[in-house]
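>> received
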Amino acid sequence: MSPVDDDMPQTTSSPEPDPFSDLISKCNNSPAEIQHAYSTHRVNRHSQQSLLFLSPSFPGVTPEHFLSLTEFSPTGKDASGQAIDPRNSLVLWGRPPEHVLKLASAIQAKLRLAAPLVEIAFSKTPEEIARLLAPLHPHVSTLVNYTYSHRSRLVKPLVSYDATGIALTFLPAAGEPRTSPDPSCPSNLEDIEESGDAYTYHHLRQDAYNLVKKFSPTPPEPRYQLPSAHITLGRYLTRDDHGTQEQREAWVAVVNEVNRWLEEDVWSGRSEFIGEWVVGQEKGLEMRAGTVWYGGGRTVMAGEGF
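>> returned
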């Protein structure tokens, strides 16, 4: 957890009744204040992690256990023939559009080195996931198509990291110029219920949570309740690349350089890359079930993009 300053609205970690409405209320339902809350969390966490990585007492990065086992196993299974990663989840994902994927790829290249909206349940058995999914089945279409009629923007990407991985983080939009390409097939405006920056990404998270809670007798268990929006760029497989003080100093310097490029060129529109993500553009939400962490599991349904 990052330190929180006096300017950032405090949020509770309790899942009851709605882990997202508290911040919206304390931000007076203002897009600018919600963006400030996300930005403050991001800045504080980045500062905290930089100090941690540069400390002589840094205990080292934490390789992702199951990913490491899977990566270094030729079959993806252990000696008994069982799948190495036993964690099963039920998630509602927002997939980034092509121009955001291109930006992420460019950043990965610069770093030398795939994004949940709401996690309904995580680290369960297949049988538990099946029981959780059953009451949602009649309503999956409503969930995955929600972003077609409720559109929120994310802007101002920056690279964030901690001892477990690297992510591209975004802020909810608050009046910034639009930069995304126009949809290839225009939408019927009568179908759009919410658009404009007054409907923020945090409002979308709140709506998705409450819809799942409405349709299911089991409340969702979102792991990400903090004011953060991200897509994962990478996880650590070993400690080899961050083992020495010199390696960690070089790593922090590279991340800072990439973030300067994002702020100066991508945010301003001078770059060929686009740093805006309208959630649902090109691809609607996607409900996934099973061992979804690193490409496993199955798609229950994918929603309509715009």
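>> Residues 31-54 form the longest helix (24 residues).
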